[in-house]
Amino acid sequence: MTNRQSAIGNRQSPVAAIVLAAGESRRFGQPKQLLPVGNKTMIQHVVDVVLDSPVEQVVVVLGCRAAEIGTSIADRPVQVVVNERWKSGLSSSVRAGLSALKPGIGAALFVLADQPGITTEVIAKLVERYRQTHAPIVVPTHRGRRGNPVLFGRSLFAELMEVKGDQGGRRLIAEHKNELEEVKVETEAIFTDIDTPDDYQTADRQYPISNTQYPTFKSLIIDLDGVLYRGDQAIVGAREFVALLQREGVPFLLLTNNSTRTPGQYVTKLAKMGIAIEESDVLTSAQASALYLERIAQPGARVYVIGEEGLRAALREKYTIAEERTDFVVVGMDTGLTYEKLRVATLLIRSGARFIATNPDKTLPTEEGLVPGNGASLAALEAATGVAPSVVGKPEPAIFDLALARMGVGKEGAAVIGDRLETDILGGRRVGLITILVLSGATSRQGLESSSIKPDLVFEDVGQLYEVWTRS
């Protein structure tokens, strides 16, 4: 006797839906379940779609950040189950959901919480086909391809409970391929789940799934290296994005931890890439360091400088650049760094000179990849002297306050766009700004996933941000 034949007896056996929402959203960088879909969160939207469909019980399986996500659906008539073993894979959530079903349930429809394009109509068709045939497996198809959600009859519950890892029901579908029923549907949403910000934007363009997923930016603090360019190459969309801000009159400031160039040199560099700005649009860590020294140094104080023209130009206006008997050692990025420079700085710091750093960036993004940044020089000096530097640039709050003051704006609606979690994003969060990470510079998707520093929004690059901005 086949599984289908053994299940034929009760044509009206109830169907339950199990919403799988226990994952960590590692590739997204924030809980996908809480992303906006219209005026709801994604988990609210998916749960409401399921509740409107012809099912008799709805079970929602949570895991990572269960309390936070569960709060958003606390007013829905669903049974919430927390899978404490969610890290062991999707199969653990399948088992948790099945264990919560009422005794009379004849089939379970497994719904992915990150498939916001799924409709009540699709679910209804699957349930109807099951009630017509009592097939052990019912799957939706579009143009010959199978998708989700998938319905399993009670005859396969025991086998589902034995599945391990992240397989879900794929193995059972393969083993029972001659017994399953396919239901043709007219939507590609059965293939689309949300794993990355790009998936989210793609789904939004296709369905759409959201109306107001992004805040209104009243002003922007924008990093340079890794955001608008890498080395001497503009990042795709950078020209269009800056032109958009200028056209719409959105206040912005280019805030860089790189102290090697003067604002005028940055104007020239960007002009070669087709990006037209004014010197007043730029604030460098070299300028910020000079402002910092004004608060703690006497006029004409003696300063030893490791750095390039950007830093020297900012300091020489009010201070004496010297190599002995100095009051301060100020260290910025220096592509001409030598052992001799490190030797002089070490002796001066050990003699009592205050150790100031323009920025802590350990690496610098270039067309070739990441190369040593100022943080590498600081590490050498700290190891040689036992003295940690006073850092002026990002992520220190003072430089963000200077940037806001330069634009003449407050923190409300202000956002920072950067490629570094430990400087741009951490600094922005410290002062209460909206934080936007782009993955075109120093931070990879893997780095974002493993970091405890999380941005409010993530984009592949400013080109993707430009696309979203112009659609909203």
Description of the molecule:
- There is one protein chain.
- The chain is an alpha/beta fold.
- It has three domains: 3-206, Alpha-Beta Complex (Spore Coat Polysaccharide Biosynthesis Protein SpsA, Chain A), CATH 3.90.550; 219-257 and 395-471, 3-Layer(aba) Sandwich (Rossmann fold); 285-391, Rossmann fold, CATH 3.40.50.
- The strands form six sheets. Strands 1, 4, 5, 6, 7, 8, 9 and 10 form an eight-stranded mixed beta sheet that branches. The protein has a six-stranded parallel beta sheet with strand order 15-14-11-23-24-25, sandwiched between helices. A five-stranded parallel beta sheet has the order 17-16-18-19-22, sandwiched between helices.
- Helix 13 links the parallel strand 18 (328-331) and strand 19 (354-357).
- The termini are far apart.
Topology, pairings included?
Elements: H1 3-7, E1 15-21, E2 36-37, E3 40-41, H2 42-51, E4 57-62, H3 66-72, E5 79-82, H4 90-99, E6 107-112, H5 120-133, E7 137-142, E8 145-146, E9 150-153, H6 157-161, H7 170-175, E10 181-184, H8 197-206, E11 219-222, E12 229-230, E13 233-234, H9 238-248, E14 252-256, H10 263-271, E15 282-284, H11 285-296, E16 302-306, H12 309-316, E17 320-321, E18 328-331, H13 339-350, E19 354-357, E20 363-366, E21 369-372, H14 374-385, E22 390-391, H15 397-407, E23 414-418, H16 421-430, E24 434-438, H17 445-450, E25 457-459, H18 462-471
Parallel strand pairs: 1-4, 1-6, 4-5, 7-10, 11-14, 11-23, 14-15, 16-17, 16-18, 18-19, 19-22, 23-24, 24-25
Antiparallel strand pairs: 2-3, 6-9, 7-8, 7-9, 12-13, 20-21
